[in-house]
Design a protein that fits this description.
The chain is an alpha/beta fold. It contains 16 helices and 11 strands. The protein has helices at 14-25, 41-51, 61-70, 81-90, 107-115, 125-142, 151-160, 193-196, 206-214, 216-229, 267-275, 289-292, 306-317, 321-337, 345-362, 376-397; strands at residues 4-9, 30-36, 55-58, 77-80, 96-99, 119-122, 146-148, 168-175, 236-240, 246-252, 257-261. The longest helix has 22 residues, at 376-397. The radius of gyration is 21 Å and the shape is globular. The relative contact order is 0.11. Bound molecules: magnesium ion. Magnesium ion is lined by residues 150-152, 221.
Length: 398
């Protein structure tokens, strides 16, 4: 069998790095057709030397020139920006698109990949938060397979195979609870950026690590699961499971719970997606249940994790609310990482943003994109609105 030819978006991020380590490990199964990154040009240069892609995409035109000078002899095609990403995912030689792009920048290339009938290994939850309905419509129309690499969705994907969708009672997403699950509530005003970046179980990028600490990440994952699996919000539960061993579960009408368990290592769900329907023999430490001894589960405390409730309320509100919340969250997390505000102000700014949206939606001059998402442009406009209104709130209250 020919190796699967991969277009990898976000090649210099943490998902990109894990994907490349699997490609390196299984050269007879996978090869890199193209790579795309935003800023880490030096890392990209090393990746080009090692994996010899046919195409690369960088963000800015000066980076295009920089790469042209470095690779004068080779036939490497160098493209630029969002348009470059959309071109790269459609290439006829690409079998599988893997996207590790963080944030709303992932939406257009993901949709383009689906429209071109490519199978998509998907880690960009923002695409579903911004435009879930649109996204799934395109996937169903084109017959593309959407393989979720996020550990929870991957576990649910695996737990649904071989069962009838109408027999599902609920999806149960597990959450680690982040680094502050045991911190007394009065300590929340003292949380530093460094402490928030220490995730107890997973190694991930900065934005998603902060989102895990607030549990906004879990809220966005509920929205993602709702669209991806076509299950209504009332049938999706979140439980805190501090060991991050049970990655999620599906409950069926006969009382059976089907789960996927494994080490908290992103390479496992990623390898599942890349190899699908085959499983790759990974040389990782085995999960030893007896050494583990016990597993714990508890309900998330809404006072400790207000961002989780905000995300669920946004999905209930529907229309543009999840996209606005996502844009606002990106802005407020950026501000927290720049040390402009306290950790516990993340949720209060987002609460104010969602109230503002509610007020705007009553106004006759409310733009259509704040009511309904009918296109990618609407989704991106709602996301931008959330981001800019949140920046405005930050500037006017600091
Ligand atoms: Mg996750």
């Amino acid at each position: 069998m020919n190796p699967k030819s991969i277009a990898l978006l976000g090649s210099t991020g943490s998902i990109g790095g894990s994907t490349l380590s699997l490609v390196r490990q299984f050269p007879d199964r996978f090869k890199i057709h193209s790579l795309s990154c935003r800023r880490s040009i030096n890392v990209l240069v090393d990746q080009i030397k090692e994996f010899a892609p046919k195409q690369v995409v960088v963000e800015a035109s000066d980076q295009v020139n920089q790469l042209r000078e470095l690779f004068t002899e080779s036939e490497l095609e160098i493209l630029c920006g969002d348009q470059g990403n959309c071109e790269l995912v459609q290439h006829p030689d690409v079998d599988l698109v893997v996207t590790g792009i963080v944030g709303s920048a992932g939406l257009s290339p993901c949709l383009q990949a689906l429209e071109s009938g490519k199978d998509l290994v998907f880690g960009n939850k923002e695409s579903l938060v911004l435009a879930g309905e649109l996204f799934m419509q395109v996937a169903h129309r084109s017959g593309s397979r959407v393989l979720p690499m996020d550990s929870e969705h991957n576990a649910i994907y695996q737990s649904l195979i071989g069962h009838r969708r109408e027999d599902v009672v609920s999806l149960i997403l597990t959450a680690s609870g982040g680094p502050f699950r045991d911190l007394p509530l009065e300590g929340f005003s003292e949380i530093t950026k460094e402490a928030a970046l220490q995730h107890p179980n997973w190694e991930m990028g900065n934005k998603i690590t902060i989102d895990s600490a607030t549990m906004m990440n879990k809220g966005l994952e509920v929205i993602e699961a709702h669209w991806l699996f076509g299950i209504p919000l009332e049938k999706i539960e979140v439980v805190i499971h501090r060991e991050s061993i049970v990655h999620s579960l599906v409950e069926y009408v006969d009382g059976s719970l089907i789960a996927q368990l494994g080490q908290p290592d992103m390479r496992i769900p990623l390898a599942y997606c890349l190899g699908y329907p085959e499983r790759l023999p990974l040389a990782l430490p085995r999960l030893n249940l007896c050494e583990l001894g016990s597993l714990h589960f508890e309900n998330p405390d809404p006072v400790r994790y207000p961002c989780l409730g905000l995300a669920l309320a946004a999905l209930r509100q529907g229309g543009a609310a999840p996209a606005v919340l996502n844009g606002g969250n990106e802005a407020v997390v950026e501000a927290f990482l720049d040390e402009e505000l306290h950790f516990n102000h993340i949720a209060s700014y987002l609460q104010r943003l969602m109230l503002l949206l509610e007020r705007w939606r009553q106004k006759p001059e409310c733009p259509n994109y704040l009511q309904h998402i009918n296109s990618v442009d609407d989704a991106l406009a709602a996301d931008r609105w959330g981001r800019s209104q949140l920046r405005h709130l930050l500037e006017t209250t600091s």
